[in-house]
Design brief:
The chain is of the alpha+beta class and 479 residues long. The chain contains 14 helices and 24 strands. The structure holds one RNA strand of 77 nucleotides.
RNA sequence: CGGGGCGUAGCGCAGUCUGGUAGCGCACCUGGUUCGGGACUAGGGGGUCGGAGGUUCGAAUCCUCUCGCCCCGACCA
């Protein structure tokens, strides 16, 4: 462990991750196994994610609503594949009000069943469609093994649910939201992602097709960062979600659902942070900058704090989130380390020399580069620094990912590459579940995503069995 | 749920084998000197040793059971 108490990434990635979560005060373990207390620093990041994404969701025409936590157990059982996927991880309430319940209540693992049963009441004709709903909620899945943010028993997420008149429209919606997630990941989170289709073995139970975005973490492993499902008419048929067509027939609706969760906070950590602590892309940082005043004598103290107060006031007026760290009991150096640990994107230093020269020092968190900027231009300089840092973080992550995503054409090479834990392989796949299963058993790698763009088409032979393959797919070990 | 590791002050650990007054570093509190990359000094506070039961004159230490965390596997966003 280093002087700052963080296990270096290269030494033990998993411990490094836990150290960041603890030391940056993002989350803590609750008394209940597998559950997580999201601490203020962590929750502030989640709030930024919510704000950014909520806007994109609304801009694409969706409205927020809220459906209840409790779902009648029978609802979950109605859709055969759905229950098969979820049965082992359900938490069920059997008693309430001091009595045994007539029908047990499931704590939602996801809300398809309750939402589409309600949609059935609201949709009469094609004129009621499309119905575009989103909800921000908590869900519970009784997982065997948990990790803070990445997989917890209870987690926070957003789940969109829509109903459409045609299959084509539902598919368009599914892809639209996949694109929203891709944009959010890349432009807000500065995480480059591969977007594409899930193989049958990885798709959501109850969906016709599942799409996802997949990001590469700094240890070369994949993190599924968002999913978008085309549900077909599976749930519509189960819950009698029908509508009257323009030519007076009855038809079942076509549904989609899509979500991202607090797991994204984990993605941010593992995507950008370093051995000094948390690194957050500026667009998602709760604080834009921290101002550290520096002084020796009392006269300096008075002058510098006044200088700092003026800067802070100006930056707040320019709509930045900023805090001055005027704590007396810590030295500037100590504060630098502390704020680096917590991932504040920019540090502003202001001391007697800066006051004298009429400038301030801006230091970037990611590369710790220093800039001296005139006092009067501090707001513009800060804005520019944050924008540059946002871009640089994305480019750095993209270069890392690209370098570690390599084409592989023989099964021997494939096994060697996966054994080295480097990253993703782009290899041909015949589409057979058997080949996928064999790879998983022998290398622990799975198909992360199947690229669907036209440009991705390429004739080749399956890296496992040698049969004809229309495209390379992305393979990797996953969280 | 299987295999491995670990629970002792807020954090990191020693002490456990071989039972005998619970320690160290950091953090915390008070004073003084410091302050542009994790300051120095003097004094001080803080612990049902994860929990329960047992053995013993005496248990952090030995025995039994139990709970939690981490790593590896099976399940998953």
């Amino acid at each position: 462990m280093g002087a700052d108490g963080i296990t270096p990434r290269g030494e033990d990635f998993s411990r490094w991750y836990q150290d960041i979560v603890q030391k940056a005060e993002l989350a803590d373990h609750s008394p209940v196994r597998g559950c997580m207390v999201i601490r203020p620093n962590g929750y502030a990041i989640w709030e930024k994610i919510q704000q950014g994404l909520d806007r994109l969701i609304k801009q694409t025409g969706h409205q927020n609503a809220y459906f209840p936590l409790f779902i009648p157990e029978s609802f979950i059982h109605r859709e055969a594949e759905h229950i098969e996927g979820f049965a082992p991880e359900l938490a069920v309430v059997t008693h309430a009000g001091g009595e045994k319940l007539e029908e047990p209540l499931v704590v939602r693992p996801t809300s398809e069943t309750i939402i589409y049963s309600m949609f059935a009441k609201w949709v009469q004709s094609y004129r009621d469609l499309p119905l575009l709903i989103n909800q921000w909620a908590n869900v519970v899945r009784w997982e065997m093994r948990t990790r803070l943010f990445l997989r917890t028993t209870e987690f926070l997420w957003q789940e969109g649910h829509t109903a459409h008149a045609t299959d084509e429209e539902a598919e368009t919606e599914t892809l639209q939201m996949l694109e929203v997630y891709r944009r959010f990941a890349e432009e807000w989170m500065a995480l480059p992602v591969y977007a594409g289709l899930k193989s049958d073995s990885e798709k959501f139970a109850g969906a016709v097709r599942t799409y996802s975005i997949e990001a590469m973490m700094q240890d070369g492993k994949a993190l599924q960062a968002g999913t978008s499902h085309n549900l077909g008419q599976n749930f519509a048929k189960t819950f009698e979600l029908q509508y009257q067509t323009a030519d007076n027939r009855m038809d079942y609706c076509w549904n989609t659902s899509w979500g991202v969760s607090t797991r994204l906070v984990g993605a941010l950590i593992m995507g950008h942070s370093d051995d000094k602590g948390l690194v957050i892309p500026p667009r998602l940082a709760p604080l834009d900058a921290v101002l550290v005043p520096i002084y020796k004598s009392d006269e300096q103290r008075t002058a510098v704090l006044e200088y700092a107060a003026g800067i802070e006031e100006e930056l707040i007026r320019a709509d930045f989130m900023i805090r001055t760290d005027a704590r007396e009991q810590f030295t500037p150096g100590w504060k630098y380390a502390e704020w680096e640990m917590k991932g504040v994107p920019v540090r502003i230093e202001a001391g007697p020399k800066d006051l004298e020269k009429g400038h301030v020092v801006l230091v970037r968190r990611d590369d710790r580069s220093k800039r001296f900027v005139p006092r009067d231009g501090v707001a513009d300089a800060l804005r520019e620094t944050l924008e540059t840092m946002q871009r640089d973080l994305f480019e750095k992550a993209r270069a890392f990912r690209d370098e570690r995503t390599i084409p592989v054409d023989s099964y021997g090479d494939f096994r060697d590459y996966m054994a080295a834990d480097r990253g993703f392989a782009r290899a041909h796949w015949c589409g057979g579940a058997g080949c996928e299963e064999k790879v998983k058993e022998e290398t622990k790698a799975t198909i992360r995503t199947v690229p669907v763009e036209e440009e991705a088409r390429e004739d080749g032979t399956c890296v496992v069995c040698g049969a004809a393959s229309p495209r390379r797919v992305i393979w990797g070990k996953a969280y």
